[in-house]
């Protein structure tokens, strides 16, 4: 059995330990030989790390001060601080407190909310009420924040009742947090009601309402609140106000207000990094690259967000060389900037450059995220790069990039556009989480590959499982009906869009319906539909007219074809496809003189036929060919191979020999 320490030994030991702590904080020659409540509190105020806190706590416990109110406040506050503390340790201290005070509860609720443990914050609030403590205006803001993130509206209303009972109903700090909660819940009208009833508003009140409208995509209302704020002049717009309002300007393409805000910033409040970033982003997305670049060049401290906005601005305007130059000059590159540049290459069909940049990204040990993968898979889908797309799929598996609904949708689309519909189905059925987009993707994929019955079967399953189709889903469904010539079913789905799902049919849906009727030879019915389509802009009707014109060629309806061609020529006279379709309609009924007239008219009007384009993937590289283009470096070998195939096919036809056998003999 270990010898028991005397009182003198304990005091001596603590004094030595305390001396080491004291010398860390004091440069004077004061001597605190025996630790006291006062000296412990003083050390806690100057504590710098969890290790020091634990040493001081040991002294406090041994001295019998473990339930001292001042000591508890300091211990919990330090350990709950996310920058230096440990929330798990703070909870251990909290659990040992016999009667926690309101202040300690507030510290813990705030800490859990800040660290995104929202459920735990609400449980502590309930525990506080059980302990007989009444919340104050420091408790509610973090409780309402947790409710907003958990999206529990009923709990929010219940706790708002406590606010009324506690007399904090009109406290500005509390009202701001209630408004923020309603904004998170999407109940922006309730947020506005709270705002209108507030006797006093500060800048945060205005900012919360504006950002709430932006979150709910009510951009006009957000702008109106900003204008009201400027008009009332009780509170001046600040950084947060400016940033939120500029987001609304971007969505509305309201360049005029954006410029007015720019002027206000320049003359009244000055630039900050966040305001500079927001202005650069606004001008880029409104197409004013030169002004964005001027602001960008003048910003003294450019962070990676600013570089990304500027690069994305050049990308969206198709200025890939300028974007790449800026990208290369950026001193810091995060995954968002890399993905923006890769996405830019994909957007403008420079898939090889996108893949090269991805390889460079790996050299710099930048870990790609799902959005990088989606951008690359989209590029592979565009050019039919099956080998590259399959490699990306394997890369995702190898590097444990989770194939969620977003990545799954991109993989389904890539495999479908490369003709591997079985792989698309394999990916779809392997998804642990499916959303409307993934269901839509597989339905469109099956429709694209002629699997109409399976596409419609999956659409029924989608509805049975409670997924709500969107307007893109119905494009896939109507295309499936069109390819399967399922006229009655197509009509039923088209009419259900508005009657069942409250989706207003767009021009694309009318185009699918016209194509369905046209393929079935119901040209008169299709013409009636065309004449009923609302005419907002003539240009929007081009796909519909073109679909019906193609049907006229298929069924040789010259009169309707001529009428449609005249309508199309008035809208887009320079489109060669219109003239070629009309020429083909004449050719289908043997009216060769009319074919010649169409071609002469094309030459006279300077309309040139768009050259046909095809691509082929060889050893992971995609090669693209245009009709009449002889610029390929191996064009002589290509034509030699084509001539050889032509001769062999002629021999096959003449002597009834399989081409495969003939090629193997010649080899």
TrEMBL record:
It comes from the Eukaryota. Pfam families: E_motif, PPR, PPR_2. Keywords: Repeat. It comes from Lactuca virosa. InterPro entries: E_motif (IPR046848), PPR_At4g14850-like_plant (IPR046960), PPR_rpt (IPR002885), TPR-like_helical_dom_sf (IPR011990). One of its GO terms (molecular function) is RNA binding. GO terms for biological process: RNA modification. PPR repeats lie at residues 101-135, 171-201, 202-236, 303-333, 334-368, 435-469. This is Pentacotripeptide-repeat region of PRORP domain-containing protein.
């Amino acid at each position: 059995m270990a010898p028991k320490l005397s009182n003198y030994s304990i005091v001596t030991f603590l004094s030595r330990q305390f001396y080491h702590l004291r010398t860390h904080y004091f440069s004077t020659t004061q001597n605190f030989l025996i630790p006291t409540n006062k000296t412990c509190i003083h050390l806690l105020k100057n504590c710098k790390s969890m290790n020091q806190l634990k040493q001081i706590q040991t002294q406090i416990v041994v001295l019998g001060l473990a339930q001292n109110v001042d000591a508890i406040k300091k211990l919990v506050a330090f350990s709950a601080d996310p920058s230096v503390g440990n929330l798990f340790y703070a909870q251990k201290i909290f659990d040992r407190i016999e009667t926690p005070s309101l202040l300690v509860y507030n510290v813990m609720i705030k800490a859990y909310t800040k660290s995104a443990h929202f459920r735990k914050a609400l449980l502590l609030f309930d525990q506080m009420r059980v302990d007989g403590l009444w919340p104050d205006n420091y408790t509610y803001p973090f409780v309402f924040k947790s409710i907003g993130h958990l999206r529990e509206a009923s709990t929010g209303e219940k706790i708002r009742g406590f606010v009324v009972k506690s007399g904090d109903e009109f406290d500005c700090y509390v009202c701001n947090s209630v408004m923020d909660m309603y904004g998170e819940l999407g109940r922006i009208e309730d947020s506005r009601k709270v705002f209108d009833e507030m006797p006093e508003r500060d800048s945060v009140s205005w900012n919360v309402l504006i950002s709430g409208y932006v979150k709910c995509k009510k951009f006009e209302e957000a702008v109106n609140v900003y204008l009201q704020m400027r008009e009332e002049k009780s509170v001046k717009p600040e950084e947060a106000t400016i940033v939120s309002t500029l987001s609304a300007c971007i969505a509305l393409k309201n360049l005029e207000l954006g410029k007015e805000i720019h002027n206000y910033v320049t003359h009244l409040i000055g630039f900050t990094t966040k305001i500079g970033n927001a202005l650069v982003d606004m001008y880029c997305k409104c197409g004013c690259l030169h002004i964005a670049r001027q602001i960008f060049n003048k910003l003294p401290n450019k962070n990676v967000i600013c570089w990304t906005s500027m690069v994305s601005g050049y990308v969206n305007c198709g200025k890939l060389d300028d974007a790449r130059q800026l990208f290369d000059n950026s001193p810091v590159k995060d995954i968002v900037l890399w993905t923006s540049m890769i996405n830019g290459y994909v957007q403008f069909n420079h898939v090889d450059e996108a893949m090269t940049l991805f390889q460079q990204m790996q050299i710099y040990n930048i870990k790609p995220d799902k959005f990088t993968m989606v951008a690359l898979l989209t590029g592979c889908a565009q050019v039919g790069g099956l080998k590259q797309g399959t490699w990306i799929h394997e890369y995702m598996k190898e590097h444990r990039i989770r194939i969620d609904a977003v990545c799954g949708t991109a993989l389904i689309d890539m495999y479908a556009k490369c003709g591997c519909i079985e792989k698309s189905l394999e990916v779809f059925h392997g998804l642990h989480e499916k959303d409307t987009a993934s269901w839509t993707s597989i339905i469109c994929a099956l429709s694209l590959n002629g699997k109409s019955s399976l596409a419609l079967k999956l659409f029924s399953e989608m509805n049975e499982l409670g997924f709500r189709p969107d307007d893109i889903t119905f494009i896939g469904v109507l295309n499936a009906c069109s390819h399967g010539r399922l006229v009655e079913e197509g009509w039923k789905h088209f009419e259900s869009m508005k009657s069942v799902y409250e989706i207003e049919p767009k021009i694309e849906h009318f185009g699918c319906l016209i194509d369905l009727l046209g393929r079935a030879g119901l040209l008169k019915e299709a013409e009636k539909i065309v004449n009923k389509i609302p005419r907002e802009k003539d240009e929007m009707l081009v796909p519909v007219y073109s679909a019906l014109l193609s049907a006229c060629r298929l069924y040789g309806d010259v009169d309707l074809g001529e009428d449609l061609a005249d309508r199309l020529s008035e809208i887009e006279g320079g489109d060669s496809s219109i003239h070629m379709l009309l020429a083909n309609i004449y050719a289908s009924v043997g009216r060769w003189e009319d074919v010649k007239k169409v071609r002469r008219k094309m030459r006279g009007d300077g309309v040139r036929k768009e050259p046909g384009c095809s691509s082929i993937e060889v050893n992971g590289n995609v090669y693209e060919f245009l009709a009449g283009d002889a610029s390929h470096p191996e064009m002589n070998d290509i034509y030699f191979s084509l001539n050889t195939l032509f001769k062999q096919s002629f021999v096959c036809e003449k002597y009834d020999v399989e081409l495969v056998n003939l090629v193997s003999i010649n080899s």
